[in-house]
Design a protein that fits this description.
- The strands form 2 sheets. The protein has a 4-stranded parallel β-sheet, with helices on both faces. It has a two-stranded antiparallel sheet with strand order 5-6.
- The protein is globular.
- 30% of the residues lie in helices and 9% in strands.
- A hairpin with a 2-residue loop joins strand 5 and strand 6.
- With 214 residues, it is an alpha/beta fold.
Length: 214
């Protein structure tokens, strides 16, 4: 129950963030948990390699059925649909998007992703420019990237849009800061609202020092 409560708090923050990004739109949120997620502490992120993509692939058809069901039951103009996944949930999103005719989503966003079961964003049955990824600089999930659950989603080769994050750790993407909404949260709201997130800029590299200097 504590985990569910925390997830629902995140959903509420995302809805508020989307509302700020587009105050003219009515944004509905759905928390989907239709697969058996691996119980692996993030401190052991590299062990996601052992978990592999199997659990994500097992739930892929159910997620596809769910998003296509949303489309079929919606009345009126086509709604802007964003599917967002965190951690191994992003692997589940990737497996679902890559199979058959995909998720029929307008946007796919992932944060703290170890991989999406594919090598390139173009394999997700969506315009790769509408695949957005966020990764904190100190997120330990980095240890699980490029193993058994897909290519590193933040790499140029993968071909997704990496957005700016300013939060810390694996579960901080919905945190606020002293100024209010973090950039990590605000950017997810922009994506949900169909807006462009602020782009990631790599941290400046240390200049090379001449020999004999520290």
């Amino acid at each position: 129950m504590d985990s569910t409560r925390g997830q629902l708090e995140r959903v509420s923050k995302l809805q508020d963030s989307a509302g700020e990004a587009d105050p003219t739109a009515d944004t509905a949120m759905v928390y989907w948990l239709g697969y058996d997620a691996p119980e692996i502490p993030i401190s052991e992120a590299n062990n996601l390699d052992v978990a592999g993509p199997g659990r994500a692939e097992d739930g892929a058809q159910d997620l596809r059925d769910f998003t296509h069901g949303l489309r079929a039951s919606h009345e009126g103009e086509r709604a802007n649909l964003t599917v967002l996944g965190h951690s191994y949930g992003s692997t589940a999103v990737g497996a679902a998007a890559a199979g058959d005719d995909g998720l029929d989503a307008d946007n796919i966003a992932v944060v703290g992703s170890p991989g999406m079961t594919v090598d390139r964003a173009e394999e997700l049955n969506i315009d790769p420019s509408h695949v957005c990824v966020g990764l904190a600089e100190d997120d330990p999930v980095r240890d699980a990237q490029d193993l058994s659950v897909g290519h590193n989603v933040t790499s140029d080769y993968f071909g997704a849009t990496r957005f700016e994050t300013d939060t810390s750790g694996h579960s901080g993407y919905w945190d606020e800061n002293s100024e209010g909404m973090s950039k990590s949260l605000a950017n997810q709201g922009r994506i949900i609202a169909g807006r462009q997130p602020s782009a990631y800029s790599p941290p400046p590299s240390m200049p090379a020092q001449p020999p004999g200097h520290l």
